[in-house]
């Protein structure tokens, strides 16, 4: 998304000071971090759920790659129970 924003007064001064102090490298980064802080404060549960989903997807992709490379074997429930010598519960 592209966005053109014009800040004046106090907000503009704050952004400039954050860049000058090296807290952020650019004005754009200051805005990006500000939005992420708002997300953390007001959309916390949604943000946690999104990060959890992203982590789970990354783990699935990692395991899929290991299976494809032949470094990890996946078993169906039936195969697993047979290997363990267990019977399926009803």
Radius of gyration: 24 Å
Q: Segments where pLDDT lies below 50 for 5+ residues? A: none
How many structural domains are formed by the residues?
A: 1
Separate helix tally: 4
Largest sheet: none
Task: Let me know the number of strands.
Answer: 0
Helix content: 55-70%
Spatial separation of the terminal alpha carbons: 52 Å
Secondary-structure-derived class: mainly alpha
Report what the structure shows.
It is elongated and about 75 Å long. The longest helix is centred in the middle third of the chain and has 25 residues, at 44-68. It is mainly alpha-helical and 90 residues long. The mean pLDDT is 90. It has helices at 9-20, 27-42, 44-68, 77-84. The protein has one domain (9-84).
Keywords for this entry:
mainly alpha, 4 helices
Describe the secondary structure blueprint for this structure.
Blueprint: H1 9-20, H2 27-42, H3 44-68, H4 77-84
